[in-house]
Design goal:
The complex is a heterodimer of chains A (about 110) and B (about 850).
Chain A lengths: L9 H9 L5 E2 H11 L8 H13 L3 E7 L5 E7 L1 H26 L2
Antiparallel strand pairs in A: 1-3, 2-3
Chain B lengths: L1 H21 L4 H12 L2 H12 L3 H18 L1 H30 L10 E5 L8 E2 H10 L3 E10 L3 E3 L2 E3 L3 E4 L3 H5 L5 E2 L15 E4 L1 H8 L9 E4 L2 E8 L15 E4 L4 H5 L10 E9 L5 H18 L1 H4 L5 E3 L6 H39 L1 H9 L4 H36 L16 H20 L2 H5 L3 H7 L5 H4 L3 H31 L10 E7 L7 H17 L3 E7 L11 E6 L12 E8 L3 H5 L3 E4 L13 E5 H8 L8 E3 L5 E8 L14 E5 L8 E8 L3 H15 L5 E5 H4 L1 H39 L1 H10 L3 H29 L1 H7 L8 H27 L3 H7 L1
Parallel strand pairs in B: 6-11, 8-10, 17-22, 19-21
Antiparallel strand pairs in B: 1-12, 1-13, 2-12, 3-6, 3-12, 4-5, 4-9, 7-10, 8-11, 9-10, 14-23, 14-24, 15-23, 16-17, 16-20, 18-21, 19-22, 20-21
The chains are: A alpha+beta (about 110), B alpha+beta (about 850).
Chain lengths: ~110, ~850
């Protein structure tokens, strides 16, 4: 992990959100997060893949083998229905948490 | 699954490389960057797997794989461990199989748990009379059927040839009560019986039919002869049916009512106080043994009132059938239970042995364990891995042990300890035995696998990683390893003590004064009624046998007797009453005494000492005054310390006998009996059957003696068969229990010794190898040899001492247990204690010799350099 340290559990949230537009493979997910966060968040594959497998076990994503842009075999992950629900609820929790923390920090 | 993960990760790697290349790096640099970012692939794989969560089966299999790999890495250890357990579990499997076959598994008939033998309440009083049997059978309300039977060794004559065989005399309802169906032909039934000697039918045993009649079905309807009477073969018993006594497999069955015909005498069935049979009954459905027993006792009390002389002490008790009631049942059950306990102890000792080995290995693998802890494996998971290893080793050991046991039991079932006696010990492992073996295997594995658990639980990862192999100080305190070794040594000492007790007991029973000197004596047994002689015609033939035997060169003395002492079929007893008795009820009886019919010269030939009076002479003929020779115990019981010669006693119904001589006491029925009274009558004045044995003392070798005797007998009457054996051979059966017990205990002791050696050697070797540096320094500094040895193997030897002391103590405490196995067991016997101590000392010295020598030859300079 460089730049910023991700609090516990936010990795799952990031992955789920990244998968919202559609199915992607692991490398694409990590690139996308890096791009979108302006290079502030870099996910190591040491954390990424266990997380992906964990999400798969809990039924929030499902995996399928496909062919990548440059014609290689790759494993694609996409959100399941319960994954969508989980994303919504975790996003909600995150917003509540961060606004609460901000309130405390700005307070007297 | 694995492959997929690899592919996935490789794809990511390749993309990363591609990215760096597009950014302008060379191929090599791109790869390097990617690798740096990537980290350890296997770690990632592991984490993925964990994140994914394995099913229980998968993780157990993983443990098994790991355990197998560990075993392959140290094959010596694996083999030792498996073999140690194979011995422990195998021993238990063998003993339990025998226990199962003889005690737990009932007879091989229909609903065997409803069958009971009817004994008297007095211990080992198993025989019943025919009239009493009829009354029990006809007046009971609790048995659906009741049969009587006895064994006989009357030979079957097929055509002209007499074949040595053993059979059953069985009541008509015997087969029907048992629910058996014939293999071919039919059985005899109760309806076939019409009184004495009315039913000349014979049923053949399956093996006998196969061996002697070539399994020819045409045998039905043909006749064979028993004792010169014809019997028609009406059927063959099923293949696996061997009668109702586990140790005696009959070749044939004939109806009980024909007993007088085959030489048992015309009154065999007539007298109510002639107890010649065994009773076996099948309970009615829903009846408990207690109810049946009460029923029979009520009948017994009525019979006691009706027939006070014969039956006044009649009573009944139900016993499990198959082992001749208590007669063999009790000693066998006690012996097997005690041996089972010992084999469990052997297994425990093996577990203690393996426990300490595993503890040592766990200590050696501290670094590896710490590493696993550090990368996140839970303690529970690590423990499970180690347990899997332990259970795997013990299951392998259990399988090997069970295979050994099966092979051993195969040999046992083919073993005929006595050529002449149809004893078969068929014990094959069945489902119960396999279940026990599995249970013991898993149990042992868990037991010794868990022993190092505490140590593992307390492993501090960081400390362990730094410390390397554990250093000296850890050995100063007493740990689990020491306790285990101590326990193991104690158990082994107990077992070794048991072996010594057995040897002493065996020695004692071998040197028990027998009352005769069997060495150099040949016994030639005949059945005179095979030659067609009646009782009255026998005496002249017997006289002639003695006279002609005296003529054989090399014979120093000869005589005849009706029964051979300590032979399997020896000994009958008669009631003895004081002179002047008129009331012959059992309560008036003075005692029971063994009785024998002997010729003049027998006592001298047998080497039985005459203490007072005289031997029989050839002048004591059939019509001379009725005389007897008694033994010292008899004389003492009847007359105290006063002389007995010239005085009288009475038998049942007032037959008066005058005592003309007193002989020394001896053993008649078994080696372990208490001194029994015995009386001898002249053969001229009667015989209890037609069996006669010619007893000859000579210096000739047995084969020559046999030829000479056969030739002599042929000259007298070629129709009379002769079986010639040496007396020591005959005694084999009598000595068999002591020998079997000694054999079993010796094996246990040997196993125990091997385990003890392994344990001590293991600990000593380990201790030395850990402290090589320290020992080398001691040697360099000039320590004396004894000091170095003390440092090296002192602790194991001390544990040996403590363990042995505990084991000896346990042996003394357990003397009652040992007493069940060995006659007159006395663990406090100084020879036993001395022997056990010496053995343990010897084992300890031997086991620690090699490590001690290694310690002495430690080269300090080389060791320092290696470090």
């Amino acid at each position: 992990m460089t730049s910023l340290d991700l609090p516990q559990g936010t990795l799952d949230l990031l992955i789920l959100r990244t998968l919202l537009p559609g199915a992607q493979h692991g490398w694409a997910i990590s690139e996308r997060v890096q791009q979108v966060s302006g290079d502030m968040l870099r996910i190591q594959q040491g954390s990424l893949y266990p997380a992906l497998h964990r999400l798969e076990r809990r039924g929030w994503v499902k995996a399928k083998w496909g062919v990548s842009d440059n014609n290689r075999k790759a494993k694609y992950y996409e959100l399941t229905r319960s994954g969508h629900k989980q994303l919504a609820s975790e996003t909600e929790s995150w917003r509540k948490l961060t606004s609460a923390v901000s309130l405390v920090l700005e307070g007297d | 699954m694995e492959e997929e993960l690899e592919d996935e990760l490789r794809f990511h790697f390749d993309e990363e490389v591609e990215k760096h290349r597009r950014a302008g790096l060379t191929d090599e640099e791109a790869r390097r960057m990617a690798r740096l970012a990537f980290g350890g692939q296997s770690q990632v794989a592991e984490d993925c797997r964990e994140a994914r969560g394995m099913s229980l089966i998968e993780s157990v299999l993983q443990d098994v794989h790991y355990a197998l790999r560990q075993m392959k890495k140290s094959p010596g250890f694996a083999v030792t461990a498996v073999l140690t357990l194979a011995l422990g579990i195998g021993a238990n499997a063998v003993v339990f199989s025998v226990l199962n076959a003889l005690v737990l598994r009932p007879l091989n008939v229909y609903q065997p748990e409803r069958l009971f033998a009817v004994e008297h309440k007095e211990h080992a009083d198993y025989w019943q009379s025919y009239p009493d049997y009829i009354d029990y059978r006809d007046h009971n309300s609790t048995f659906s059927g009741m049969a009587a039977y006895y064994t006989t060794d009357v030979a079957v004559v097929i055509g002209k040839q007499a074949v040595k065989s053993y059979g059953y005399l069985a009541s008509g309802n015997y087969f029907d009560m048992l629910g058996e169906r014939p293999a071919i032909g039919r059985f005899f039934h109760a309806s076939d019986e019409h009184g004495q000697n009315s039913t000349p039918y014979i049923v053949l045993g399956y093996d006998f039919w196969r061996a002697r009649f070539n399994s020819n079905p045409q045998v039905i309807g043909t006749t064979v002869n028993l004792n010169a009477h014809s019997f028609t073969v009406i059927g063959v018993a099923p293949r696996d049916f061997h009668g109702t006594e586990l140790f005696f497999w009959p070749d044939y069955w004939i109806p009980l009512v024909d007993a007088p015909e085959i030489g048992c005498g015309p009154d065999y069935l007539a007298h109510r106080d002639d107890r010649n049979f065994w009773i076996l009954g099948r309970l009615k459905p829903g009846v408990t043994p207690e109810q049946a027993s009460d029923d029979l006792n009520a009948i017994s009390r009525r019979l006691a009132q009706l027939y006070p002389t014969a039956d006044d002490d009649l009573d009944a008790r139900l016993v499990r059938p198959g082992l001749m009631g208590d007669v063999w049942g009790d000693p066998i059950r006690a012996f097997l239970a005690a041996i089972m306990a010992m084999s469990v102890l052997v297994l425990l000792a093996a577990c203690a042995n393996l426990g300490s080995i595993f503890a040592v290995r766990a200590a050696d693998r501290t670094r590896e364990l710490a590493l696993r802890l550090a990368i996140g494996a839970s303690r529970a998971r690590i423990l499970r891995t180690l347990l899997t290893e332990a259970v795997l080793v013990s299951v392998l050991g259990g399988v090997t042990g069970t295979l050994f046991a099966t092979a051993l039991l195969q040999i046992l079932s083919r073993w005929r300890p006595f050529v002449d006696f149809p004893i078969h010990v068929v014990a094959q492992p069945d489902a119960k035995v396999y279940a026990l073996a599995l249970l013991l295997s898993v149990g042992s594995g868990l037991l010794f696998g868990l022993l190092p658990a505490r140590q593992i639980w307390r492993t501090d990862a960081a400390q362990a990683m730094k410390g390397g192999k554990s250093a000296g100080p850890a050995l100063r305190r007493f740990g689990m390893r020491d306790i285990l070794l101590c326990v193991q040594i104690a158990l082994c000492t107990l077992l070794v003590t048991g072996s010594f007790v057995a040897f002493r007991g065996m020695e004692r029973s071998l040197h028990t004064p027998l009352g005769f000197r069997p060495l150099g004596v040949t016994i030639a047994e005949t059945e005179l009624d095979m030659g067609g002689y009646t009782e009255d015609q026998s005496w002249p033939v017997e006289k002639r046998m003695a006279q002609e035997a005296a003529q054989i060169p090399g014979v120093s003395s000869e005589g005849l007797i009706d029964r051979v002492m300590l032979d399997n079929d020896c000994c009958a007893k008669e009631s003895v009453y004081r002179q002047g008795t008129t009331d012959f009820r059992s309560s008036q009886r003075s005692f029971f005494a063994h009785f024998f019919y002997a010729s003049p010269g027998y006592l001298a030939t047998a080497g039985t000492r005459l203490l007072a009076g005289r031997d029989f002479s050839w002048n004591d003929e059939t019509n001379s005054p009725q005389i007897a020779i008694v033994n010292a115990r008899f004389a003492h019981l009847l007359f105290g310390d006063t002389p007995a010669v010239g005085r009288h006693f009475e038998l049942f119904n007032g037959h008066l006998k005058e005592i003309v001589g007193v002989v020394e006491d001896g053993k008649y029925n078994s080696l372990t009996e208490t001194p029994q009274p015995a009386m001898f009558f002249p053969l001229a004045q009667g015989n209890s059957g037609s069996d006669t044995a010619l007893v000859v003392r000579s210096a000739l070798p047995p084969a020559e003696m046999a030829t000479a005797l056969n030739r002599m007998m042929n000259g007298i009457d070629p129709n009379i068969p002769l079986t010639v054996r040496s007396w020591p051979e005959v005694l084999d059966l009598a000595f068999f229990p002591a020998r079997a017990a000694t054999g079993a205990l010796a094996v246990m002791g040997l196993l125990a010794a091997m385990l003890a050696v392994t344990g001590i050697f293991g600990m000593a070797a380990y201790s030395v190898s850990r402290r090589m540096k320290e020992l080398a320094i001691r040697v360099a500094v000039g320590a004396r040899r004894t000091q170095v040895i003390a440092a090296a193997v002192g602790r194991p030897l001390m544990l040996l001492g403590v363990g042995s002391a505990l084991g000896l103590l346990a042996g003394v405490v357990a003397s009652r247990l040992l007493g069940q196995i060995v006659y007159q067991a006395n663990p406090s016997d100084p020879v036993v204690i001395g022997g056990a101590v010496l053995t343990m000392v010897f084992l300890g010295a031997g086991a620690s010799a090699v490590p001690a020598r290694r310690a002495l030859s430690a080269d300090p300079s080389r060791l320092m350099r290696e470090e």
